[in-house]
Amino acid sequence: MPAPIRLRELIRTIRTARTQAEEREMIQKECAAIRSSFREEDNTYRCRNVAKLLYMHMLGYPAHFGQLECLKLIASQKFTDKRIGYLGAMLLLDERQDVHLLMTNCIKNDLNHSTQYVQGLALCTLGCMGSSEMCRDLAGEVEKLLKTSNSYLRKKAALCAVHVIRKVPELMEMFLPATKNLLNEKNHGVLHTSVVLLTEMCERSPDMLAHFRKVSLVPQLVRILKNLIMSGYSPEHDVSGISDPFLQVRILRLLRILGRNDDDSSEAMNDILAQVATNTETSKNVGNAILYETVLTIMDIKSESGLRVLAINILGRFLLNNDKNIRYVALTSLLKTVQTDHNAVQRHRSTIVDCLKDLDVSIKRRAMELSFALVNGNNVRGMMKELLYFLDSCEPEFKADCASGIFLAAEKYAPSKRWHIDTIMRVLTTAGSYVRDDAVPNLIQLITNSVEMHAYTVQRLYKAILGDYSQQPLVQVASWCIGEYGDLLVSGQCEEEEPIQVTEDEVLDILESVLISNMSASVTRGYALTAIMKLSTRFTCTVNRIKKVVSIYGSSIDVELQQRAVEYNALFKKYDHMRPALLERMPVMEKVTTNGPAEIVHTNGETETAVLETKPPPSGLQPANQANDLLDLLGGSDITPVIPTAPTREPASAGGELLDLLGDLNLTGSPVFAPAPQIAQPPFLLDGLTSQPLFNDISAGIPSITAYNKNGLKIDFTFERSNTNPSVTVITIQASNSTELDMTDFVFQAAVPKTFQLQLLSPSSSVIPAFNSGTITQVIKVLNPQKQQLRMRIKLTYNHKGSAMQDLAEVNNFPPQSWQ
What we know:
This protein is of the alpha+beta class and 820 residues long. Among the domains are: 437-583, no CATH class; 705-818, Sandwich (Immunoglobulin-like). Residues 593-699 have low confidence and may be disordered.
């Protein structure tokens, strides 16, 4: 048989192919020749054939038939054969294939080989694709090589030990004695891999972390880092004028882990972090990488306040860098630290605002989020001016988030009600249909409560919608205000600015134009028709025209509009004596506060998510509307309220008249509660469970589920059925935290469809310990009389790493045994 072509000739031949089909033909022809050589057990050219096969594998062609040939090469005594064999094993084999177990004995022999390069090949292969079984069998050999004096083998053994620990964490203690002398090595390769090994051990085991803190690992790392900074030019380690930046970055990351939540370790590294921050060259990207790691370390440990200010100033300098990646990294880091070091970040406000004009959308978004985080009572006017300018010129995908942020900031820090109203109206005019639905009821409430601004507001809104009905939220607010305060508009009584002269007919012309405009949504038409009806008690000369308009829409194809018009016609014909009282002006509305993070939000035709906090009320009496806040978390109209488990007192709802007046708009599915004395509520349907054994014997057969698993937070549901009422399912949630920091202020909230009844009991705690060292439990009782399939939406809020976290999730995978 002729000798096969060399690898170099094969590469040259494949590169001459003009089409993919031609290349495929060449590959198939060569693969056939290689298969024939393998069948004939040709030992002479096996190494060459496997090398060609690996090249084909790199091009994306199948090469699995060469796996056993790789094992034969590994078993060979020639170094050139072993080298190709081990390379082939790393590329063609992994732990999912049983073939790799045949290598275990060969690797063990090679780890004890007399030649360091053969030992190095075996260590690389084990560290690359060793399975847990191989790692258990060969960990002893790796540990021996970790103690050798040969730096070439020690660095490879350290990386191999990292892989062993990842595969078999319980073998970690085996390598602990070998780590004592690793940091005394002068070879940078050994130092680098040793730091990687120590980092892995500290991250995976709290016990190891505590041990390394006790044995004074921090002073050793500080000494190495100081030598790197102070050492002169070293050609073998120099990168852009900085001595071994890769080792510096690794040491800084390990220091961050050691100093987190530990005062002594943090104190020991404060000085060296200040030296790194001040002595590192920033003209090259290498220096910026080290400074960024230094900043992360300073922010993560218990560092001094001056050091934190220095770190934030470094990030401020990053914002002036021409590299977009560095600017993005700086904005992201500042966003994480703004809550803890607000004043220090404020010093860079002008630079952050300038980033809003950046062409890169990622930088824009981060700059927008950070700008909102910097808003306070002192700078609200200037910041809102910049953010409104940004809202006017930004891309459509930013407008909704920017508008919502401006609404929240204005509500929290508004210096005056007029400024607040002007700002929100500017947003409605600028962002238009991009604003979220809850902006409309929030602005209506703000206007209602600003009694002295009614004339000014209705005049501004009237001028804003003249001839332009494209901004639906603006038109809805304007229609509502014209209906409420139309008499102030036509009277020309406006002290804040020059009044305009408007007749009753001109006002009705505007509202009728809204009704017939093709741009008006059904909800907007509802606002306009209701406004026209209200004006029948505020205008004196145009009542007949209003009657005519209302009667026309009694035959509208829009069912909602038709029903509204028919009811208004009935007011004119049968109950005209009641009309002035029914359509009188809305009183001042007080915002209903709840224990939870959200309130009932009435939107344009829908009801937004409203959440009920599970924390107990301060007294035995709980407002009834508080128990019914959880109305529409699933987004439909079939949502059940949460039933209170104690007698409640219904407060006087100052905002109830708004719902009475706009009740026909179907803004919300919640009842309106009038002032009432304390009454005893019927007992909750699930209360009887507490006086008897709760669960029957079939509970053990209901499998548990994982309802949520994200960002280290895991929520498990276990199920039990009631002895006394088979329709009741008792769900016990268990929340665990696999991250390295505790999650605090944890609140679990849930909503179910209307055919169910839900009761949330108090949680066992509000803090979820880190490293899965404990759990929070909470009981949910669900009454399901119709035996329908369970579905639930949950909301999770907690604080983690200094940031407030919030997430929504749907749970639809309840086991049939839990509800059938």
